[in-house]
């Protein structure tokens, strides 16, 4: 069977599975809609958290980033993995013990202020919409290539699917759907990696294969460095980013992970505090399987790509090349009219433009793997994008229905009415997410990295200080979150959208990229929150006692 037939079969089976699970586990109450009834096992929650976390950026774009940027791309591995250590140690158990539905719920109650809650709702919506834009673009990429529809149509199809199980099942449906999606995405990621590792190095373990030698005894990384140097690219195993920017990007991704509302809410779904810690441990294990494989896929894909396209006759290129050309994610301009593709590091002489988001999806085709493996990768990419999109949409809908409507506008709303509002909010959120998916600010991983910067700038200081500093008051939290998010927004829009006069790389403040500026905004948030709290009244005694109680070890109180 051809690739398209295999893709329709595998995507159809997986979509039917997701929808079936959503129908089976549909939410019947607000607690089931928001936190899956609070009774999810640590193992299931670990699987669901891993799927929620490993978005299109992890599955589709991260290996592509490493493939093109080499050593510089490792910041995404370090930041996104290290963030889970912070989350497990510093946040998950304490937030579970607090026992609320959402991050704005924690902020509003901890800082005894609806103003603080409103700022948190705004930040949650901003972070989630920025993040979900990358997921919807990932969905569009997969559909456009493998089902031969344009990217916009692919985004709309993805919107319909995720809307069905997010609106019907809520967190309960999403949780068990994400368990299935993790199994699909990790199988789809590992199978081609193992195939290609055996093909190129004879080693079935990709993590060992990419550091090994090919059939000629040449180490793959040395071979790739040589190819890069011959073609004028930067050496693959050397970095070009400044040490300061690498540090700030890594820090922003780490603390952004620990501040992402759609990840944090997962720890409200387990029965007790100790389960929150166990969930984080399981999630880190499941995430590590993919994250330790991504550098291997990057090296395999980059090596195969260069050897397949460079100085080859355009008319003799394999079918995969023309298929990706139709999506406009690969383009060839014959500048010297010799009919050959010159893929070079010199932008003036280079004739080939490649969207880095295609590398994982095109990798099995370039390596000439069986059609069913190619289709499996498409199904995995959709699973990764849709699982995260569903979690984000739930954060958006709960921020509106629970934190805005229930807690501030109409406190006497019935549970049935609140559930209706939550589902309507999810419908609106899907439509907005679809728009951003069709008009994203950047490629998938860069778009998602901006969401981490926004989370680092807004939520992380407020949550950490809210747990470990009982003297931090509402004035400090509100001032810190407001300045942090606005500073990050200004920098992001200035250098990504050319607002406020725009600017180039040379204009970056202290040489820090927009992806790393979340760390600067976070530090600013911390300083302002602490200074303002110092010069304003202490929180009420009951709030200080609440903070003390949160930090009581889990063995003392498991409720």
Helix content: over 70%
Q: What is the tally of beta strands?
A: 2
Structural class: mainly alpha
Can you list the strand order of the major beta sheet? 1-2
- Strand composition percent: under 5%
Question: How many whole angstroms does the radius of gyration measure?
Answer: 23 Å
The string of secondary-structure elements, in order, is HHHHHHHHHHHHHHHEEHHHHHHH
* Distance between the ends: 55 Å
The CATH homologous superfamily of the domain at 3-302 and 367-442 is termed: Sodium/glucose cotransporter
Describe the secondary structure blueprint for this structure.
Elements: H1 3-24, H2 30-35, H3 42-53, H4 56-69, H5 74-98, H6 103-110, H7 114-146, H8 151-201, H9 206-209, H10 220-231, H11 243-257, H12 261-264, H13 273-291, H14 294-309, H15 319-326, E1 330-332, E2 352-354, H16 359-366, H17 371-409, H18 415-438, H19 444-468, H20 474-496, H21 517-534, H22 541-550
Antiparallel strand pairs: 1-2
Task: Characterize the structure shown.
The protein has a two-stranded antiparallel ribbon with strand order 1-2. The protein has a domain at 3-302 and 367-442: Up-down Bundle (Sodium/glucose cotransporter). α3 packs across α8 (151-201) and α4 packs across α14. It is mainly alpha-helical and 559 residues long. It starts with a helix and ends in a 9-residue tail after the last helix. The chain has helices at residues 3-24, 30-35, 42-53, 56-69, 74-98, 103-110, 114-146, 151-201, 206-209, 220-231, 243-257, 261-264, 273-291, 294-309, 319-326, 359-366, 371-409, 415-438, 444-468, 474-496, 517-534, 541-550; strands spanning 330-332, 352-354.
